[in-house]
Amino acid sequence: MQRFYPESTEDAWDGWKCETRVGISDLQAMATPQHPLQHETSHLSLPRDRRAENPIFDIYHCIIGCCSRLCTVHASDKWDGSAADCVRGGNGGLTPDWGVCADFRVPVSHWRKPMASTVTAMPSTRMSEPEWQTRLDLAACYHLVDLFGWSDLINTRITARVPGQDDHFLINPYGLLFDEITASSLVKIDSEGNKVEPSEAEVNSGGFAIPSTVHMARPEVACVLHTHSIAGCAVSMQRDGLLPLNQHALQVIGDVAYHDYEGTGRNPDERARLLADLGDRHILVLRNHGLLIVGTSIAAAFVATYRMERACAMQLAFQQSGAAFHPITDEVVTAAYSRPTGGRNEPAKFEWPALLRKLDRIDPSYKQ
Known about the structure:
With 368 residues, the protein is of the alpha+beta class. The chain has helices at residues 24-28, 55-65, 129-147, 209-217, 230-236, 247-252, 268-278, 298-321, 330-338, 351-362, and strands spanning 2-5, 17-23, 98-100, 158-162, 165-171, 187-190, 223-227, 256-259, 283-286, 290-295.
């Protein structure tokens, strides 16, 4: 977990407070045969003049032992331990699974393999903790979309409303693959797609036309997720769209709307028609194009995307099998179409934390 936030307006620090948790498994990845990781409690009191004997331990000691301030953590396989002095002393402790990040100075060099747990400093602009949390969730969402196989190189986008700033949104830097996006690299823009904070990143403002339209028309929408996935696009090309073939389809089918393909969606008249087609639903099949899914949270948008993608993939698999269909009763299908939209539970309570744990095990670099 990583958070950056201003401590107070009177705070003497001219940066950000950093609170980061680094897993022991991440530190083990830094160890070499010459410098194995040592993390027994007895080593925490190792004298400073002996830390150079075990540079990997020195880094670990700093991670768990100091007060935090703005920090950048890197590592080198040729570390000599000479610069691993804490900026400030502290009384850090060790929990069963995690060490608490500290403030220390480490020379920057390229590690022999990518360091997913590297911490990078936030820009020295004032940012609320809710905005940083939104950045973390949105960056995680980009990585999860890629992990599940729904990304399309640098194309498509996921946008999120900035908490407390209803007309400001976060979007991916154009040109990055989804698994390269981090919390700090997301760009803040206004409803017209203009950057509202200094950034060297490119923004596909034209591609933001449809998400912006939805965000501005439906204030409850916190996230708009657009994909060009194989399953979603394949169903979007079918005349009858998503079919009530199984339980997965019935979970979402009452929340699905359709919009005919007219082009890029930048025309104001088309955007008005798209809003009319979407109505108060959360899943919009862009015919011959892809899917557009909205949610009251980033978690809700991702889980709705997962359910729709799963239903589409199952439909394609069945259609390709050539097998006879065992029909579902009209009563059950009708009830599915009549079910209230928006899902049965809040994904942020159940699925989303599980997904973040999965992502953290695989690649926590989205937290940078």
